Amino acid sequence: MTPATYLLCYDIRDPRRLNRVFRACCKVAVPYQYSVFVLTATRDELDALVRHIARLIDENEDDVRVYRLHAPQSIQRLGEAVLPHEIVALR
Predict the structure, then answer these.
(1) Which candidate, 54, 71, 79, 80, has a CA 20 to 30 Å from the CA of 88?
(2) H helices within 27-75, ranges in order?
(3) pLDDT tens by residue, 43-89
(4) Which domains are seen in the chain, by residue range?
């Protein structure tokens, strides 16, 4: 499978769950802003991450979203960059 680039973001209410989800995401993705990560992965790798996160969250209180970025090289931003520009090219 060909890797694709994804934007993963979340809103986790409980600090303990938030910390667990953050650590899980840091293992495979690059933190871009608070609760926002950029990930380059195959569909199988993404599915494995989503399954793992699903075990960490409370589906009645938390919100996790993953968006595929079809043209990550065309991302535009304003203001001071949190990470160096090159970090978007993950693989």
Answers:
(1) 54
(2) 43-56
(3) 999 999 999 999 999 999 999 999 999 876 666 667 766 655 554 44
(4) 4-88 (3.30.70.240)
Q: Distance between CA 68 and CA 3 in Å, rounded?
A: 11
Phi/psi for 66 (5° steps) reads -130, 125
Rounded to two decimals, what is the model's pTM? 0.79
Q: Compute how many other C-beta atoms are within 10 angstroms of the C-beta atom of residue 48.
A: 13
What the block records as the tokens of 80 is 């001071």
> Given the DSSP bridges, would you call strands 4-11 and 36-41 parallel, antiparallel or unpaired?
antiparallel
In angstroms, the CA 79 to CA 82 distance is 9
Q: How far apart are the first and last CA of the chain?
A: 14
* Sign of the torsion angle spanned by Cα atoms 35, 21, 23, 49: negative
- The DSSP H or E segment spanning 28 is none
